Amino acid sequence: MSDxxxxxxxxxxxxxxxxxxxxxxxxxxxxxxxxxEPERVIWAxxxxxxxRIARSLPDAGRSxxxxxxxxxxxxxxxxxxxxxxxxxxxxxxxxxxxxLWDTTRALSERIRAGVVEKLAGKPxxxxxxxxxxxxxxxxxxxxxxxxxxxxxxxxxxxxxxxARHAGWWWPYERAVxxxxxxxxxxxxxxxxxxxxxGPAVAYxxxxxxxxxxxxxxxxxxxxxxxxxTPGRIRAEANAExxxxxxxxxxxxxxxxxxxxxxxxRDETGVLWRIALEGDEDxxxxxxxxxxPEPDGTHRTYWLRVPPTxxxxxxxxxxxxxxxxxxxxxxxxx
Length: 333
What we know:
- This protein is α+β, with helices and mostly antiparallel strands.
- 44% of the residues lie in helices and 14% in strands.
- The chain folds into 2 domains: 3-184, no CATH class; 230-326, no CATH class.
- It has a 4-stranded antiparallel β-sheet with strand order 9-10-11-12, sandwiched between helices.
- The longest helix is centred in the N-terminal third of the chain and has 31 residues, at 65-95.
- It is elongated, with a radius of gyration of 25 Å.
């Protein structure tokens, strides 16, 4: 397994933290930063619980996140950048951390948003919660930049050790708050949070986030997907949630059950269109595979195309990145 694959597994790890190993990493990170080891280690079951503890922790002293994480990272990045040169550093980052950056960043941002939503009873309280979250070190979700320094820096080994064995953590002068990893994590093939029958991320204490193909959705919304009807979909006022409904229900099924009418036919297929209030039209091309199945039947496919398509050929051509005039297939498949 490559270093990047190892860190990808760290970022996606679920299940109980290895508490002794994580605490050893914390002590090493403090010593590497020239700090005295924390007097207390407090474990939390989720970033939500960790933020609750961190914002009201008595006698913990000031945050030492800069000394433990920010300054060492900046110094090591500068050292490696100087050693490799600008082009070498860009190539190195592209081959390591960049491959994990988007998914880990999206996940940590979603967790932050979920914590703010749960803890901020009033809009005015949100800024204070965000400030507490800025004191957090992301543990396993720092995997992207840790991948870029794997094996290159003893100074960051404490941070890496915590990341391998635990979730988020808050370092203070005299105390540290350490969080468990998620109990569940569900993603689609693109790495986006995705689950249609439960939380996409769930922690041991019940803190959970729901998402469909990366888009945050309420838990009660997912519960209703199994009983969707075309009328229910049309009645949804939120355009983003309506798109989720359509993806779950199936565009082809929605078109067929909504009484949609074909608006164009040609040798490539049939163009269908249905208007949605407050949103772009749903436009699809019905295409029949020219190659028969083993039983002699021909499978029908539905292709979602831009609402600007006015002919079936234009829509099919778009799926190949072509203009309609340039699309001349030898054989439709």
